[in-house]
Design a protein that fits this description.
Layout: H1 4-9, E1 15-17, H2 26-34, E2 39-42, H3 48-61, E3 66-71, H4 77-86, E4 91-95, H5 100-108, E5 112-117, H6 120-128, E6 134-137, E7 143-144, H7 150-160, E8 165-168, H8 174-182, E9 187-190, H9 192-195, H10 204-212, E10 218-221, E11 229-232, H11 235-245, H12 250-257, H13 260-267, H14 290-305
Parallel strand pairs: 1-9, 2-3, 3-4, 4-5, 5-6, 6-8, 8-9
Antiparallel strand pairs: 7-11, 10-11
Helix pairs in contact: 2-3, 3-4, 8-14, 11-12
This protein binds ligand TUI.
The site of ligand TUI has 18 residues, from β5 and β7.
Length: 312
């Protein structure tokens, strides 16, 4: 299953793990990379020195390439950007903003920059700024999202840019990987399926909520604040949506969610925590190792693609 992305990143399978806050730490990143995909450490809102430690611990667990996801709303993003260069990281994905101001420094250090985008305009801007590839992330994704669905976004982005496109949002099995190829993508990024992986440090109660979830069990909060977030429906999302409907101000909503992702991931608080997950949660049925997940998906996609003119 060779594509421009497997060549660019020097990986065996065209599968990239999402840079999920709290979840995408060194154990998960190393497990995905060791299984032949690209693991990512999600810098999220962490201080730069904590990211440096994560990088060093990941290097101790894998010889394979892995990357860093920089969440651009992170107040420490400037320092994280420098730590990435200092630690010799060669692949960066970015989310929740425009990484233009770091491009020159990263490119000078031979870091491949792969921005996550939710629109054609942003994809074109990133290509012009020197991105090596883009992740086109549809609204089916968990966490902070755009408005266009993966099925519509990926082919439009693929038509608009010459750099390779990675599809994300609503992809959780071999059918999704095969479909992504059909839409013009050359790899997929998956988050939710890896939250439920055996190597994921997410609390078992969070993993069980993903496994219990049905197709319609995710909701989007934060549309009124300009930061829409998809997570599994619970007391927290119900309270948030009620406050939003009543026109609550930004600070009131912020206070409700302060620390709530950490509570979900680390403490397993499935009632008042924010269980960020995508619409594909309904399809995830068991906890499996990253190796099992990647094997299952690539074998299924391989079978589906045979006879469709795709090399598998
Ligand atoms: O970034 C993500 N997913 C995330 S970030 C996150 S932490 C967070 N929590 C609460 C509120 C906000 C953030 C949880 N999940 N995915 C990548 C992604 N990037 N999705 C959409 C975008 C995006 C949006 C706007 C990328 C660029 C963009 O550009 C706007 C601009 O600056 O012009």
């Amino acid at each position: 299953m060779r594509t421009r992305i497997t060549e660019l990143l020097n990986i065996k399978y065209p599968i990239i793990q999402g840079g999920m806050a709290w979840v995408a730490e060194h154990h998960l990143a190393a497990a995905v990379s060791n299984a032949g995909g690209l693991g990512l450490i999600g810098a999220a809102s962490a201080p730069a020195e904590a990211v440096r430690e994560e990088i060093r611990m990941c290097k101790a667990l894998t010889q394979k390439p892995f990357g860093i996801n920089v969440m651009l709303l992170n107040p420490n993003a400037d320092e994280v950007a420098r730590v990435i260069v200092e630690e010799g990281i060669r692949v960066v994905t970015t989310g929740a903003g425009n990484p233009a101001k770091y491009m020159e420094m990263w490119k000078a250090a031979d870091v491949k920059v792969i921005p996550v985008v939710a629109s054609v305009a942003m994809a074109k801007l990133m290509e012009r700024a020197g991105a090596a590839a883009v992740v086109a992330e549809g609204t089916e994704s968990g966490g902070h999202i755009g408005t266009t669905a993966t099925m519509a976004l990926v082919p439009q982005v693929a038509d608009a840019v010459s750099i390779p496109v990675i599809a994300a949002g609503g992809i959780g099995d071999g059918r999704g990987l095969a479909a992504a190829f059909m839409l013009g993508a050359e790899a997929v990024q998956m988050g939710t399926r890896f939250v439920a992986a055996a190597e994921s440090i997410a609390h078992d109660s969070f993993k069980q909520q993903i496994i219990r979830a049905k197709d319609i069990d995710s909701v989007v909060t934060g549309l009124s604040t300009g930061h829409p977030v998809r997570s599994l429906r619970n007391r927290m999302t119900r309270e948030y949506l009620r406050l939003e409907k009543e026109g609550a101000d930004f600070m009131e909503l912020e206070n409700l969610t302060l620390g709530s992702l950490r509570r979900a991931v680390m403490d397993g608080d499935v009632v008042n925590g924010t269980l960020m997950a995508g619409q594909i949660a309904g399809m995830i049925k068991e906890v499996q190792t990253c190796r099992e997940i990647i094997q299952e998906i690539t074998e299924q996609a391989g079978r589906l693609l045979q006879g469709n003119g795709m090399e598998a």
